[in-house]
Fold each of these.
Amino acid sequence: MTDEVTSVGRAIATALDRAEQLRRLPDRPTRVRIMTVFGDDRSSLTINASIAARSPAELRAQEGLGTRRIPWAELDARAGEIVGLVDEVVREVTLAVRDAPATQRPSHSETDVEIEGFDELVDELRVTLTGVAMAVLESRRKTNSLSPPLGSEATMLAALKLAALAACTANVGLSDAQDELRNAINDVLRKAGPGEYMQRPVLNS
């Protein structure tokens, strides 16, 4: 094995250590991937960084950023750049996320006239979606031994996926979505009262 190949391996190992350090940062940790890419003129060592977006704006802010490539033909000569490129892509996406515009929910920005009936729409959708979910669960219970708790958990996961899609469409950030989920759970717990496990509210309560 040549010294040049060894230096490439050492540089990649150091870069991976640096990426792990950055991933462990407590404030908005960055995910860094160091990948080998093959195919035509795109064969390269590729370094990519991303930060888990908390809003659609943060996701859009990172589009097209945080990626650097070193072609295979240049890898030996440019091995010394690898660690620096890790810091570079992390800095790029960090700045992009920091400068992303603040998320503003439609219900907080529209006029009173434009959101008239908003609460009624929420209730109508809740009733409709619950009815559909109950119909699906009943159908599944007739064909297999699906327990009510397992059905409720499946319903929760499906609802969260739908909520995530709706949140992105409405430009609702993760923090607001978490607050709404927390409020909804607290509301259900208040209605349920201090009863035992078997007295927990059913899905359509």
Note: The radius of gyration is 25 Å.
Amino acid sequence: MSIECETGEVVHLQVDTLEKADLKGYNLHRAILSGVNLRAANLQKADLRGAIFDDASLAEADLSESRMMNSWLRNADLTGAILTKARPIATDFDGANLTKANLEGADIAWASFKAANLCDANMLCKRLEEANFEGAFYNLRTLWPRGFDPSKKGAILVNS
């Protein structure tokens, strides 16, 4: 894991797991956390701008009210994650598993969910029309705002 300090210095830490870690309000701006286990971690109100979480496990993690602009979560496991009122603006969720994730009130403008699993997710988000859902999977239990048609944005309804 790499973290850039306010001075611009990059600190490298050898960490494989931060499971259940309390990182509430931490500044992890531009942190590299690819493949790290952050299952059930508390990342409420954290600064995650530009952070890289590719292939990381964030299942059941609390990311509520976190700033996630321009972050990378490709192929990440976000099963049951809480992203309420988060700001994953222009964030890359391509191939991520967001099964049962709660994104209610999250601002997902310009975010990409290509081939992401959105089954049973709460997608009552802000600015859905500006997000990319090409090839994302959802089911009848996925919650969408009234009048929003995910299939018109390229999402695929699956039976599950």
Note: Residues 108 and 146 are 17 Å apart (CA to CA).
Amino acid sequence: MEGRLSEEIEVKVPASEAWKVYGSLQLSKIVVEGLPSIFSKVEVVDGDGSTRTILHLFFAPGTAGPSSFKEKLAVVDDENRVKVSEVVEGGYLDLGFTLYRICMEVIEEEGQKGECIVRGSIEYELREEAAANAALVSIEPVVAVMQDVVWDCFFTDFE
């Protein structure tokens, strides 16, 4: 079984400025500081924020499910402003998923100087015997991260 969820928000800053945050390790720091009810800590296991960097993310105490997971940055494409991470240990993989991928894209809006779109998406695959766990997948945490960056870094209303 496989699936994909996606959501977009409008950000009233140039794509190059938004990418400085979404495309860097600064994103991890913002996530922990801005969303303490979801994540308690993010550690860089290996790497500098470029492709193949491994992060260990810890959920806040009291959250349902696994306590942590490790993800690898599979793609960090500065030219196209795309970051793709894949869970490589724990988290959804412990629940029967064979793939759990999060993608963040910063897209320059045509004809709108100083504005961009940030698209977050989740792609997943899971074993047939764990198909009921597809109900656990939600785009809401990704949207919360996207919105938190906007509030913390750009102080911008989003629509």
Note: The chain has a mean pLDDT of 90.
Amino acid sequence: MTDEAANVFADPTAYADEPRLHAAMTYLRAHNPVAYVDKAPYRPFYAITKHADIMDIERDNNLWLSEPRPVLVTAVADDFARSQLESGAGLRTLIHMDDPHHKKVRAIGQDWFRPNALRELQVQVDALAKRYVDKMVEIGPECDFVEDIAIHFPLYVILSLLGLPEEDFPRMHQLTQEMFGADDKEYQRGATLEERMATLLDFFNYFSTLTASRRANPTGDLASAIANGRIDGEPLSDVDTASYYVIVASAGHDTTKDAISGGLRALIENPGELDRLRREPDLIGTAVEEMIRWTTPVKEFMRTAAADTTVRGVPISKGESVYLAYTSANRDEEIFDDPFTFDVGRFPNRHLAFGYGVHFCLGAALARMEMRSLFSELIPRLDSIEFAGEPELAATVFVGGLKHLPIRYSLR
């Protein structure tokens, strides 16, 4: 049973089958919280399913390294990515880096996500939230909430922050879907590695042109800050510059889309909690945290041991990798009371959906602000809401959530 349960982490379809996924993770937390997984087409790894163990690993970023295996990909894709980086190409985002380089690169964009900067952005985000709730009224009484609303609201926010022209937003969305949806037949560009890598090439070509433009004529946006960022007095490499854009432009909206759409689904499935939030709008902050815990859009990161060590008594050798199962940690019975209950007033809420430690999500505060704005606008105007079809989840082993959320509603 341990092998069957652990193999869900090497099966992209498991994240589209929540009962199966959570049954497996619940079993592993109780019986084998450091489970060895050896299933093709992936290289072996240890699945870490307990909240405390994941936090311990995230704290010790000298022992547990992001390089060379920051996320779970097939062995063939892993080899190809490494060869690309060795040749001076490929993707190397913040999630691929370790300190001290990681800290220096992260600092280039960090000021854009600090409280002072976000306070200046609040009015624009609130206006956008109203715009998209108004759009629900226009296209109602039914819509696919993912396709019609949840994608576009955070996409508009992050790409406006970067300073990209609005006519390029659909292209950025498509490329993001292809990159994070490589394991899903609806989203993937193609079945071969070469077809999938073409998505990254399209990203890089777009952002190479953007970099040249912002270096020649800085415009005071986040894209200009990245293009003109310097490390130890030297400009960012072409790979690091393009990679910075990719992670901000893609993860900066796709994960928020997953939390927004999954959060609305949870409210529909738990009408008592929706009514509670209507009666107590001051709970919006804890409600957003619960939506983020409930959905956990980033399913995992991986770390590689820099020396021989142990986790919960299990020996792990230098060079072996662990899979940090955030979805499991966010249902850990030792941390959360009634973890499978959706509670808009849950406090404290020590979820790990944004990671922990030096790699804590750069855009966490922005994502929270967007969600608070949208649900603060939506819920008071909502007279009724129900499913108009079956919610559909994406197949993934990394980032994902709902692909479709058909709803029927009445809005003021």
Note: Residues 2-411 form a domain with the Cytochrome p450 fold (CATH 1.10.630.10).
